[in-house]
Every structure is written in structure tokens, then in C-alpha cells.
## 1
Amino acid sequence: MAQQNIGTVKNSVVQLITVGIFGAMVGAAVLLFLAEKFAATSDHATLLAGFGGAVIGSVLSALVSFILAKQASAETLLRDFEARLAEQKSYVLRLMVKASVVLSDLVAIRKAIDESLSNANDRNLTAEPLWKRVLPIVGSYQTFDIDAAELSPLIAAKDNALMQASVTLFMQHRNLIEAVRVYADLRGRVKEIVVHHFGSSEGVLTSGLTQEQMSKLMPLEIELESLIKTIRAMLTDLIPLAEKVTFEIGPAMQKFFGSQDFPVFAPKGAGEE
């Protein structure tokens, strides 16, 4: 598409130059015809010839100025077009990089949860509630805003599916990170309530609770269990979405820009034998 726009600009300039040259030639021919037709005496012929030469010279001068002006205008338009193209590529590349960072974050969170569950299973805690088996997830809790300019190339390419996937990804990632943060905070509150421990075995603490402590702990247990289940469900949906945005933007933009120089992020192991 970008190459077609450049070709259109060049074709328009060529057409304008052709029309200008043709008009100048016709004008010169008409002047010479009139000079021969009405020059009855040598004085008149000399006068008309001089006048005709001056007019033809002016026409040629104007034609050259016209061609140079059009050429400069075309070059300016081409530079502006290339600058806008580079800007669009920069915006959508930034979107793709952010999506890849989000994907890495999602995979890291899932890995942390899986490791907690695996360790809990090794300690024969499979029957315990999920929140007791999944440790707080430590991370930077970084989220990303999405800029309308970053979506503009996808809009121009009429790739509505990829545009909507991008918006959904960053919005839902923000919600997920908030859930992860709240989960860690609530686990911290549990530690503040459960302060009496009688012993430990293979990393598992045995604790004692008073009736008052149990009353404080009960609503936290319900909220923690709900949160960790929600987090796992969100990861199941968001990881494929992040993969779609990260890995499909490159090929889509190569097609839109009509160039293979736009980078493509491939899944790990893709292309390996």
C-alpha cells in the first residue's frame, strides 16, 4: 500500500510535466504560424520574429520553472510521506514490544503459580485449599498504557481483530496485576493474624488459632481462594491473547507497509529443527 502511494505521486508529476511540454509546443507552433501569415513586409517579419522569439523564450522559461517547482513539490511530498511511514512503523513497533513484555510477565506469573503447586504436592498438601498452596507472587507489578497512535497503523490496515486484541490484552493485564497485588497483600495479612506456630516439617508450619483469630481469618480465606482461582483463569485466557498480539503484528504490518524490513517476533522454538 505504501509503495502504491509513492507510485501515485510520481505518476501525477509525470502527467503534469507531459501536459506542460505539450502546451508549450502547441503555443510555439501557433505563434510561428501567425508570424508567417501576417508578416507582409520584411520589417513586419523581423518584428514578429523578434516578438515570437521573446514569447517562446518566456514560455520555455516558464516551463522550466514549472517543471522544477513540480519536482521540488514531489520531493517534498515524498519526504513527508516517508516520514509519516517511519513514524507509523515506530508506533506499532512500540506496541509489539510492549505486548511481548506483557507476554513474558504472564508466563512468569503462571510459572510461579505452577512451581508453588508442585512444591505443595511434594509436601502432600494436595488436599489443602488453593490459596494455602500458592505463595504470594513477587514481581514489579508493571502495567502499560496503550496509546491511540500505536493503534493507528492497525486501524489503517483495517485489522480490527488485532486492534481489539491489543486493547483487551493491556486492559486485562492491568486487572490481572491488580489481582496479583491484592493476593500478595492478603497473604501478608494472614501472616499478621497467624502468629503462633508449634513447629514445622518440610517447610510446612503447624499453627494454632484462637476463636478470634479464626473469625478474622475466615473472610480472608474466602477472598484469597476466589482471587487465586480468578488469576489462574485470567492467565488461561490472556497468554494466548498476548501470543496473538506479539506474534501477529509483525506479519500484518509487513503486508500493510508492503515491506519485509518490519521486524517479526516468532514464538520460542519456531523455525528450529
Note: The CA atoms of residues 91 and 150 lie 5 Å apart.
## 2
Amino acid sequence: MKLIIGLGNPESRYNNTRHNIGFDLVDSLAAAFGSSFSSGKGKYLAAKITHRQETLMLIKPTTYMNLSGHAVVAAMNFHKVQKNDILVVCDDLNLPSGTMRLRAKGSAGGQNGLKHIIESLGSDEFARLRIGIRLGEMPPGSFSSFVLGKFSAEERVVMDRTLESCREAVLDFAKNGIEHAMNHYNKSAE
């Protein structure tokens, strides 16, 4: 079993925001496989899908982004999953919109959801899929207002295409592991 954890904020006012792209990805995977989310055994929602005989539990923390580690630990404990069987999906302000990066481990890179997961697990050795949300030069204003802002119509078209590739990358991770997925999908994103 693999846990695919999409990061985001739980309130509906955050739907379709850049910061919730992790939720968008797991929502699209659930929809593609005819699954739906229900309450998990902790502060998260879960949906189960099966792809090529591999079970994936799609997880959406119901904590805010900055407290995502609590939900990740609860889901890992309940499903008896180790760090090498999780993939955390989040936004990345440092990557251009429409790109993705898979990594086997690493720092939080300024992403507070990842930071809390690293703190909660006591390790940065878990796979992550970062989805770029930066639009060239940053618009004036705060980073938080940008990441919590909604996608424009043009951005949404780009992100929908990106989510297609991300879904394929997640399924590759589930079947073949992070190294295989990185070798295949990071090349096409560069």
C-alpha cells in the first residue's frame, strides 16, 4: 500500500487556490478511479484506489497546511505504512507554473506543510512531488496572498495539463518506486 498525501487547506474558501494544488491532484485521482473521500482515522480524509494491483490511499489532511504532519503520522500509523511508501504532493513557489519535481528526500524548501511533516516524522526521507505555481516574476504583495490566491483562467488550463502528468507520475511511483518515477518524469519537466 502507498499513501499519496495531497497538501492543502481544508476550508472551501481555499478551493482552487495555488496552495491547494495537492488537494486538486488527489481529488482528480479519486475521480479518475471512481472513488470518493470519507473521514479517516485521524485528522484527514481518505479515498482508496487500486492501480495495477497496487492499493493507493489518497489522503487529504483536515488540519491546515502548516500542521499537516499530524495527519500524515496518523494515516501512516493507521495504515501501517513506512516512510518509503508515502508520496507528499504540494505546491512549490520556487518552480515555474506547469512544472513538477519528484524527489526521494530533501528539505522543506520553504514549504510549511513539508516542514511540519519533516518535524513530525523526525526525518526528511520521504518522497515528494512538488508542483510549480510561480508565474515568472512574483506579483507585488505578500507570498501568502499569492499562494492563497485563486488560479486565473489561463493558469487553470496550464495546471490542468500539469495535473495530468502528475497523476501519471503518482501512478508510476506507486507501481515502480520513486527512482523510476524521478527518472521518467523529472526529465520531461526540465
Note: The mean pLDDT is 91.
## 3
Amino acid sequence: MEAKAILRDTPTSPRKMRLVAGLVRGKPVDLAKAILLNSTKAASRNVMMTLKSAVANYAQRNPDERVSDQELFVKTIFVDEGTTLKRTLPAPMGRAFRIRKRSNHLTIVIDKVKNPVTK
């Protein structure tokens, strides 16, 4: 049974967040956490927070099942564009340049590995 966590209106551009999301797509949760901890991208903190929330949601939905991070994997992760705040910057000769402050919505779905690999 899968679990989902959504982080809405994150003040980061979707393009920057998608770079970090691509790092953990399809990976086991313990490996994804290690990747995010060692990432230098600012968006990795938000992805880590949402991933931990998804793991907690999985534990909440399956109270009688005890699973570790090795048995869970990131099934899907995607970044949608959120609201865009439009600001103006004064420019020469009485003009104004438009600044678009973008935001995004991050969705992470985790699930249990069907056939876990044992070492």
C-alpha cells in the first residue's frame, strides 16, 4: 500500500526542484535520504522533509506493519508549477522590468518493494 506526501507553494523555481527530484526518483528511501543529505542544492532540504513525511504517512496508514527504510522506495516524485508572484524592477528611461518569483508543488509517493533483494 502506497503513501503520499505533498509540499505546496515552495518558494523555489520548479526547474531547480526537478533537478533534486531526479536524483531520488526510483531509489530506496534509505539511499534517497543519503543522497539528499549530501546534496549541496538548497531544494534538497524541502525534498528531504517531504520524503520523511511520506514515510511517516506510510507508517500511519499501516500501523500493524513494521517496515524499515530499506523496504520502501520512491515510487513517483514530480514537481508541478505553483503560483507565480509578479514583481517589477525599475529600469532606465521610466520603464519597468518584470520579475517572476516562481513557486512549485512537490509530490512524493512511496511504496513497499515487491521483491526485496537480500544480501
Note: The first helix runs from residue 14 to 24.
